[in-house]
From TrEMBL, chain A:
Residues 20-437 form the DUF112 domain. InterPro entries: DUF112_TM. This is Putative tricarboxylic transport membrane protein. It comes from Salsuginibacillus halophilus. Keywords: Membrane, Transmembrane, Transmembrane helix. It comes from the Bacteria. The chain crosses the membrane at residues 20-39, 51-74, 110-132, 138-159, 166-184, 204-224, 256-278, 320-341, 353-376, 388-421, 428-446, 466-485.
From TrEMBL, chain B:
Residues 28-71 have a biased composition (Acidic residues). The keyword Signal applies. The lineage of its organism: Bacteria, Bacillati, Bacillota, Bacilli, Bacillales. It comes from Salsuginibacillus halophilus. Residues 24-82 are annotated as: Disordered. Pfam families: TctC. This is Putative tricarboxylic transport membrane protein.
Amino acid sequence: MNAWESLMYGFSVALQPEALMFVFIGVVAGTVIGMLPGLGPISALALMIPVTYGMDPTVGLILMAGVYYGAVFGGSTSSILLNAPGIAGTVATSFDGYPLAKQGKAGKALALAAYASFIGGTVSIIGLMLVAPLLSNVAVAFGPSEYFALMVFGLTAVVSLSDKSLVKGLIAAVFGVMVSLVGMDLQTGTARFTFGNVNLLDGIDFLVVALGIFALGEVFVLLMKKAGSMQQNSLGSLKLSKQEVRDIGPPIGRSSILGFFTGVLPGAGATIGSFLGYSMEKRIAKDGDTFGKGNVKGVAAPEAANNAASGGSFVPLLTLGVPGSGTTAVLLGALLVMGITPGPLMLEDRPDVFWGVIASMYIGNIVLLILNLPLIPFIAKILNLPRALLLPLIIVFCMIGVYGISFNTFDLFLVLFFGLIGFLMRRYGFPAAPLILAMILGAIMEENMRQALQISGGDWTVFTDSNISLVLLILAVLSLIGPLVPRMLRMIKRS
Amino acid sequence: MKRFWKRAGVSFVVPAVAVGVLAGCGEAPEEPDTDDDQASGEAEEEPDDTEDDDDDTEEEFDEDWEPEQDVEYIAPADAGGGWDTLIRQTADVIESEDLAPVNFAPQNIPGSGGAVGWAEVAGHDGEPQPLFAASPPIILVPLTETSEYDHTDFTPVANLITDYSVVLVEPDSEFESINDVFEAIEDDPGSVSIAGGSAAGSMDHISIAGAADEYGLDAADVNYIPFSGGGEAMTQLLGGHVDVVSTGVGEAMGQMESGELRPIAYSADEPMEEMEELGAETYIEQDVDYTFDIWRGIMGPPNMPESAVAYYEDMYAEMLETEAWEDVQDNQGWLNNYQDSEEFGEFLDDQYDLFENVLTEVGIQEEE
């Protein structure tokens, strides 16, 4: 069977009424769950495990894939409307999505997110279908030293994410790294910076920090403003102007491809893809200084990247049998429960599952688009709520989201604490994005650095021996000193 | 009161969570036949005593005891992991084979490698439930002093199944046997990088460090590099970033069967047919007198009433004999390893001594 016949066979599986129904249910359920701040694909999938239990594996996996897509998309809704990202992958969407919503262009931002997600998702499915077997080599080519270099490169985005003051951006980033180190150290099993508190042993969940700093911080800022000074938000038009379509085309294309490849790397995934996409576009855009203030490209790039990454993260799962992200790890667990072992043999043993899932991804993406575009005006109505209702509602949603991850009341105090920090940061002009980026990347960077050094027996050349990590480190250095070069040339000329 | 909120929170907080709860119910629908069982059964004692009265731990042994309320059935981890799978699969078989008059309602309480779930169970001192899934971490996690409670705080109910640990290399690796690996470590301590899917001092580490210790090496010379999950560890080996992987047989089955990775030793006491087909030998067959069980069993709260323990151990013994269970076993690659409450308890104490010894050797547990 060639790829085309296989795909057709896949469609014949995925287009059966039962499968279609479950794609639809999955996408709807996923979108709704993903919209709640704090509940992302991982929780959505975990909730589905008992449902798929006893189902035909193909149908079960199709349902799960639908939920996954829906949740990734739904997450961007709360990022844009409430500045409350549901998952790490949609944090970057809030940088420009929320300002757009505040300017009364919520409809446009949501529509943009839907289009960009659709394109990103479609690109990644095509990628998954055509090059999945080849890419399994790429996925394993990344060992600890390569990941370390990738994280270093990712962290250089701090420079472009710190608006006015680089120093303040760096301070925020260092604080982010510090927060990421709290908890049990995987390498030695020692508790670090927990102050003897059991609740900190698992570390501080990314979501606690993100919801605190972004959503609660914003709520506190709004509370400080006089009631009259806040303008009524309107939905605005869903339509994009021709100029805007032309503007966002290339960023979506670039970010879709970038997102797909970062998604393939186990452990990197949607978050890094969306951050890299965002900072790449900010750097190359002529109007880069309007990023963070409601630039349409700032919504399109991360949305295309994070959806493309979710497709990419299926590559290691389906071809190697290893999960590429927390979400696919849950999926792997679900598959095992259904009696299927993903891996190289899956393509031969269960082509119905493999191709059925790929075909269902196409269908899921289309369902997502036609389902969500008409719904946008209704979803965005939340912004028309009076402030006295909206702000408490955001707080409640944040609390639910946080409690929903850990079922631990300690985290509720923690999110308040970070809300306060977020408020102070806003008050004194510290950018929040570097903190979040550093918190996500810092822990992975540290872990991989130590793994690499332990493998090499403490020899630091391990980071330059591998071509991949060498190239990435050079890129990191270039992106740091790059912006300085013109200034240095000018200084030399002057002297 | 505190507990009330916790419970209430779970059921009404998020619509999405409600979906999960509903699904849980759908999976194990209320059975009207509870009444029949009660009617046909005995009405001598008021079983409510055991539920409400925490102090009354010395109630009389009642061999006709049966659970009256749905059993809270806890996996102290996220959905999709080993504990979760055990809980969900057993709950399913218990229901489909009608082994108990009540429902077993699976519930996930993740956090701190199990410690959060254990703390929840420990709060039910003297009660006949909740029951929870346990495996070596219930001994290892407390040994690294990250849990307030250890295995002695809980009542062993029954040991159910076992998996074994396996040592894997790349197909064209120079290592042909486990002895090759150990000799290389002997020549140049720390030179062989061994990846595993759990933290230092946890299962994958202990299983190979224990074998190295038995071989006569200093367990601290085993250069163990922890990754988050057996899958990630195997990816590292596939990419040639590490030399050896230590993980569970079940977890590695896919990669072994496809020939991507080659097993060189596994920790069973008797050779397994599936592994022989793959050309793997046990440690014992390679003259390293060592076994390591990744056992999984069921435990209950502290001071569980004896009559309840007796009821559940019989129920599980019966469950392992059913055909529905055989299907589950085939699917999951699990081996039955039944031990009743008493044997299981002794086994746990032995495991504790073994693990403590190895952890001291590798320098994680400080000598006291």
